[in-house]
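During the reporting period the student researcher (J.K.) took over the structure-prediction task from the postdoctoral fellow and processed the backlog of single-chain submissions. One of the processed entries is reproduced below for the supervisory committee.
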Amino acid sequence: MTDVRVTHIGGPTLLIEVDGWQLLTDPTFDAPGRTYRFGWGTASRKLTGPALPAESLGDLDAVLLTHDHHADNLDDAGRVLLPTAGRVVTTVAGSRRLGAGTIGLAPWQHTTLTAPGRPTIEVTATPCRHGPPLSRPVVGEVTGFVLRWAGQRHGPLWITGDTVLYDGVRQVADRFGIGTVVLHLGAVRFGRTGALRYTMTAAEGAELCRLVGAHSVLPVHYEGWSHFSEGRQAVEAAFAAAPATVRASLRLAHPRHGQLPHGLTGPGWRWNLPPPPGRALPDGCVRSGPSWIWAYPDGSLRCSERPSRTRRTGRTAIVSNPARRSPSESPTAKQRRVWDRSAPSYDRQIAFLERVQFAGGREWLGDRVRGRVLEVAIGTGRNLPYYPADATLTGVELSPAMLDIARRRAAELGRAVDLREGDAERLPFASASFDTVVCALSLCSIPHPAQAIDEMKRVLVPGGRLLLLDHVASTWPPVRAAQWLLERVTVRVAGEYFTRRQLPLVRAAGFTIVEAERLKAGTVERVHAVKSA
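J.K. obtained the following structure tokens:
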């Protein structure tokens, strides 16, 4: 178990304390009021000073410097601090400029921080593009960082760095099951370069968090400088408009009732959430001044009061003339209605997509199942012909109409199948009940896929297999853009997403990936994972 605490000092500057380690990101400790030149006629004025003076930090084990050539990420006082840190990890170009004692990493390269009696921390550099396409020769190299150590409950911590949303950033979700995102925002703009942006907008940040599926999101780098075109209000609005899982992940730091946690002197704060009236301090949190500090004994941001979630289940939708929704209809009732109405024509409609889009997918699933098999969102039972004869089959399905068709199909095949009405996010089975769990073309429309995957893990025996087949966000930008446009209709009508990605959620749940492959311009993904023994 590792103790973790994150303190926001200002701008992009964080103090990350991990079980004895003290790590500082992008040191900025100059007083406010000064204007800094960034080159090519661009400049910005610092509006607020640091929440903590540099001399109060004590011994620093490492500085994680996303880039050294812009003063909003490394100012004069920050440069004075660098020689006092045990290590400085930055870009390759930054390492050449800063000289001895620094470690320069290219994207996907990593280094390790080791010390007796502390967990080893692996630091991996991640891609950034600090501006529009082809701007790197002008704006210079920037990097993000993924931090991994033993005891992280929900997955690695990712510091995005100053970047726009582009394919290099999306690749991080493919490689790591991120648990916590430190999200650099601000939508940086300069009058001289017009509408060009040099960091993510709040809306892009929310979209990235939806793709990543992180448990916790910590926004930074959006206040305190004049070149930020979006501030706190934009962050709140963008996440309020995001899906429920993204809204629930936001940890927007702020002082309560005009007070700051003990020891903070400026606009910064520790991530905190006071317990609701009449409630005791959540387990794992500690007291600091008038606020609760985020302190996570298991390496995760778990001391939060998460909003209740509505549970429902779906699958790949082919929507035709959906029924009108009652104003009082719950999301679960909406899903049941959509699939009950679609059931009579579902087999005919999905057959075409199986030939041209998902060809071989059901055979792939059937070849890998073993023992006691649970199919989540079994639908009309189209996988039943592909399961081996010696498999013991159970299926769970939300829609009674779909389930009736599955029963008829099982009878026609002569297969004994235990078919039950139920919810993917609240499976009606005891823990460790199945050797294999299958979910095909359904996580695309389950409102909280991470919760469903956690349930699948719960009902698997140690060493059990998880087999997934679904459509996901394409690796080709034009196709992904078309998927995004299609979602404007399908999410509203049937709750179906085309730009989701399940693999990061599987990793974040603690599964070991055995196979993962993407087909059809990256729009189809097959995942074979196992639950740790």
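The committee noted the following: The chain has a mean pLDDT of 83.
J.K. will present the remaining backlog at the next meeting.
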